[in-house]
Design goal:
By secondary structure, this protein is mainly alpha-helical. The protein folds into 2 domains: about 70 residues, no CATH class; about 140 residues, no CATH class. Helices cover about 55% and strands about 0% of the residues. The chain has a two-stranded antiparallel ribbon. α2 packs antiparallel against α3 and α4 runs parallel beside α6. The protein is elongated. It starts with about 30 loop residues before the first helix and ends with a helix.
Length: about 240
């Protein structure tokens, strides 16, 4: 941007990731007995915020606790937008808009795709895309395949029988987690009881171990089937990391 004549332009600093938005450990549902006993199927910060909503914005904010500072998106004027994106703010069809957009700003040539695309090419060593969809596709598809795996469905049946012995009728953990009775702001005694039984039955039947093991194998097969593409993604990531160090 500064090379195009915007001497005072400063990219916003990226704030740290918010740990309250990390749900990786909930992939197979609630697994923490202590959390289940406190907040049922709701992560602790979600339960606290939902309960506090009745007290108004201040109470909800207090329940959230201090959030990490986030990057503030800069407000760009038309010329800055053109330099940044290589197109205009009125862009409808992006491809057509790029073709119709001016090729210069402040008398200087705009790189193809603007400064955003130029920075991506710098990070990737000439590539047009910084983030690959394939890894995310495998992540999502492997989960869908895992719930149909015979080892997992057998473990679901054992878990369901365990839950029935505790007085609850659910075919699998997702059905318990998504019970409409628990889709409310406050955590009820019943939700806590069901979630606690859920975790106990997961442990008793080793459901999470079976499920994770099956999904890991499914993922590995998917990765092996796309070995060339995954290797390219790995190399692109290594290139990008090298360019920011």
């Amino acid at each position: 941007m500064q090379g195009l004549g915007f001497a005072s332009f400063q990219a916003p600093e990226q704030g740290p990731a918010d740990p309250r938005e990390t749900f990786t450990d909930l992939r197979y549902g609630t697994v923490d007995a202590a959390q289940a006993a406190r907040t049922g199927y709701k992560p602790a910060f979600v339960a606290a915020r939902q309960t506090a909503k009745a007290g108004g914005p201040a109470a909800a904010a207090a329940a959230d606790g201090p959030a990490p500072s986030a990057a503030v998106e800069p407000v760009l004027n038309d010329a800055e937008w053109l330099a940044m994106t290589g197109t205009t703010k009125e862009a409808g069809d992006l491809a057509k808009a790029k073709q119709a957009a001016p090729s210069q700003v402040q008398g200087k040539d705009i790189p193809p795709g603007g400064c955003i695309a130029e920075s991506t090419r710098t990070l990737t060593g000439g590539g047009e895309q910084l983030y690959a969809d394939l890894a995310q596709d495998i992540n999502g598809q492997s989960y869908k395949e895992s719930v149909k795996d015979s080892r997992v469905t057998k473990a679901f049946a054992a878990w369901s029988a365990c839950m029935k012995g505790k007085g609850y009728s659910y075919k699998d953990p997702m059905q318990a987690n998504d019970d409409p009775k628990f889709a409310v702001a406050t955590v009820s005694a019943e939700e806590i009881a069901v979630a606690t039984a859920d975790v106990a039955c997961k442990n008793e039947t080793k459901l999470v171990d079976v499920w994770h093991g099956a999904e890991a194998q499914i993922q590995q097969k998917m990765i092996n089937a796309k070995a060339k593409e995954m290797d390219a993604i790995k190399k692109a990531k290594q290139t990008a990391l090298a360019h920011v160090q």
